[in-house]
């Protein structure tokens, strides 16, 4: 049984069709990366999966259970096991680093505060942000904020993690500290979907690469297949263009 | 200039003046909270409302922020009786200032509501927070932070603006000062003392507001 299974997914913003018949699956612990030009629908796919943007058709199955995105309970169950980190920093500005990481476990999962804080501190240590636990987001650099956002996403113990271009808003010298953090996570059995423009990184950490264009997955395969011998013209084009940079 | 200041006649009336200061604070408080009540609805209508409620809220704000509060109160006090509605002077002042405050507070609160970043709401939603949890944990703190300073300033404006009530015979601080000075003919001394009382009122108000803001909402406001 696949851990995550997406079948024939469609989504639109108004009359703009953004996802058209997307199918993709991932085994437990797999790292699948979404690449493709800007506007191809990578973010939208991730947003649909976690219930931020409604799908218009298609099926998503997680660990054998079909998700009903119109049903609150079903969406809640998805969010219980799935976390997302966005491109822009969206830490809660009015909360300290520690509070950002503990708010979901305490308010949503009803964990005792002491336990949530202990867990949060070990997560913050892992992303190298423990000593900043009392800082507010606006006192941190972009890279530091993203590392806290990763800790916050992990605090609910997800078994599926969605990462949406988590480094694209960062200064070049900050990118690596965040990539290092993600790299360390890939061996922990968490199924990951990564939308990214960092080709070298994606190639290194992914078990599979899905190339998106105009709302479709045009090609999907192992990193070496997709990067070295793409079968589709569109992929060849995109890969050669982006590797030149 | 051989004017000799004589404050003792004014100091004798200090309890009377301080009583007036209390009325001043009452006017400011009542109009502030009633105005805030209107402002919440106005702001929600302007941000989330449909076309008609947006139009209504906008017209209200435009009308009341582009005419002097004094003119508004005059119209309430002198025009409404012709329409068969008779208002006491205090009531007219309270209603007039409240409507005026409601318009300004609509704008202040609107700025607060739109200061909430979409991305933080997305993040909270994705974490699994309910709408209520999002409002309490994410939206309200943002709104409070954004509106705190303009809200404090507006409260000060109301403390001072309530002096308009004197024109209609309401015995708040300025009204009582007029009463005293017409009796003792020490206009300069009386109004100097009254000015000092106003300063004390506003400084105390802004200091306590800033303190609350700093502790509760992490607003970087100076207490003094
Ligand atoms: N809120 C929105 N309203 C309307 N259209 C949107 C909205 N968000 C995205 N779109 C459109 O949907 C399409 C897919 O956008 P999406 O953000 O999913 O692309 P992406 O692959 O993540 O691009 P990028 O690499 O730039 O992040 C684009 O054409 C975009 O203009
Ligand atoms: Mg995107």
User: Most extensive interface: pair and counts?
Assistant: A-B, 24 and 19 residues
User: What assembly state would you assign to the polypeptide chains in this entry?
Assistant: heterodimer
> What does the largest sheet of chain A look like?
6 strands, mixed
Share in helix of chain B: over 70%
Give the tally of β-strands of chain B: 0
Radius of gyration of chain A: 18 Å
Q: What would you give as the CATH superfamily of chain B?
A: MetI-like
User: How many domains of chain A, as an integer?
Assistant: 1
CATH topology of chain A: Rossmann fold
Instruction: Please mark out the parts of chain B with pLDDT under 50 across 5 or more consecutive residues, or reply none.
Output: none
Rough shape of chain B?
flat
Q: How many strands in all of chain A?
A: 10
Note the run of SSEs of chain B as H and E. HHHHHHHHH
Q: Into which percentage range does the β-strand content of chain B fall?
A: under 5%
* Global mean pLDDT of chain B: 89
Work out the strand percent of chain A. Answer: 15-25%
Whole-Å distance between the termini of chain A? 39 Å
**How many domains of chain B?**
1
Helix percentage range of chain A: 25-40%
Looking at the structure, the CATH topology of chain B is MetI-like fold
Describe this structure in words.
- The complex is a heterodimer of chains A (245) and B (224).
- Chain A is 39% helix and 24% strand.
- Chain A is an alpha/beta fold and 245 residues long.
- Chain A has a 6-stranded mixed sheet, with helices on both faces. Chain A has a 4-stranded antiparallel sheet with strand order 2-1-4-5, covered by helices on one side.
- In chain A, helix 3 packs parallel to helix 5 (142-154) and helix 4 packs across helix 5 (142-154).
- The mean pLDDT of chain A is 92.
- Chain B is mainly alpha-helical and 224 residues long.
- Chain B is built from 9 helices and no strands.
- The longest helix of chain B is centred in the N-terminal third of the chain and has 35 residues, at 14-48.
- Chain B is flat, with a radius of gyration of 21 Å.
- The A-B interface holds A 50-52, 76, 79-80, 83-84, 86, 88-94, 103-104, 107-108, 136, 149, 152, 156 and B 117, 119-120, 122-129, 133, 137-138, 141-142, 145, 217-218.
- Bound molecules: adenosine-5'-triphosphate (ATP) and magnesium ion.
- Magnesium ion (MG) binds next to helix 1 of chain A.
């Amino acid at each position: 049984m696949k851990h995550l299974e997406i079948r024939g997914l469609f989504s639109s913003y108004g009359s703009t069709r953004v996802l058209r018949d997307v199918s993709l699956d991932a085994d437990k612990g797999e790292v699948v990366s979404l690449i493709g030009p800007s506007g191809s629908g990578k973010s939208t796919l991730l947003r649909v999966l976690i219930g931020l943007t409604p799908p218009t058709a298609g099926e998503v199955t997680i660990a054998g259970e079909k998700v009903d995105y119109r049903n609150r309970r079903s969406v809640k169950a998805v969010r219980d096991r799935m976390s997302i980190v966005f491109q822009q920093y969206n830490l809660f500005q009015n909360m300290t680093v520690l509070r950002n990481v503990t708010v979901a476990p305490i308010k949503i999962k009803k964990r005792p505060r002491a336990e949530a804080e202990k867990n949060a501190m070990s997560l913050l240590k892992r992303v190298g942000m423990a000593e900043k636990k009392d800082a507010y987001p606006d006192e941190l650099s972009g890279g530091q904020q993203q590392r806290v956002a990763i800790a916050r996403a992990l605090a609910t113990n997800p078994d599926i993690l969605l990462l949406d271009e988590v480094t694209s808003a960062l200064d070049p010298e900050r990118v690596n500290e965040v990539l290092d953090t993600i790299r360390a996570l890939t061996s922990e059995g968490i199924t990951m979907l990564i939308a990214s423009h960092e080709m070298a990184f994606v190639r290194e950490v992914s078990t599979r690469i899905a190339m998106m264009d105009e709302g479709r997955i045009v090609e999907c395969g192992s990193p070496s297949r997709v990067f070295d011998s793409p079968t589709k013209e569109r992929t060849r084009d995109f890969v050669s263009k982006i590797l030149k940079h | 200039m051989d004017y000799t200041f004589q404050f003792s006649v004014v100091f004798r009336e200090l309890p009377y003046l301080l009583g007036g200061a209390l009325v001043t604070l009452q006017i400011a408080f009542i109009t502030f909270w009633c105005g805030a009540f209107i402002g919440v609805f106005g702001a929600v209508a302007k941000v989330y409302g449909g076309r008609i409620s947006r139009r209504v809220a906008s017209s209200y704000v435009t009308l009341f922020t582009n005419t002097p509060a004094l003119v508004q109160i005059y119209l309430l006090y002198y025009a409404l009786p012709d329409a068969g509605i008779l208002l006491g002077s205090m009531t007219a002042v309270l209603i007039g200032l409240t409507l005026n405050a409601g318009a300004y507070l609509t704008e202040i609160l609107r700025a607060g509501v739109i200061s909430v970043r979409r991305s933080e709401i997305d993040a909270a939603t994705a974490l699994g927070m309910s709408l209520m949890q999002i409002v309490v944990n994410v939206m309200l703190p943002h709104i409070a932070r954004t509106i705190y300073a303009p809200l404090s300033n507006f409260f000060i404006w109301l403390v001072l603006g309530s002096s308009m009530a004197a024109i209609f015979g309401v015995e708040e601080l300025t009204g009582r000062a007029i009463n005293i000075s017409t009796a003792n003919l020490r206009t300069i001394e009386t109004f100097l003392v009254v000015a000092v009382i106003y300063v004390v009122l506003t400084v105390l108000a802004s200091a306590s507001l800033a303190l609350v803001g700093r502790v509760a909402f992490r607003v970087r406001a100076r207490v003094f």
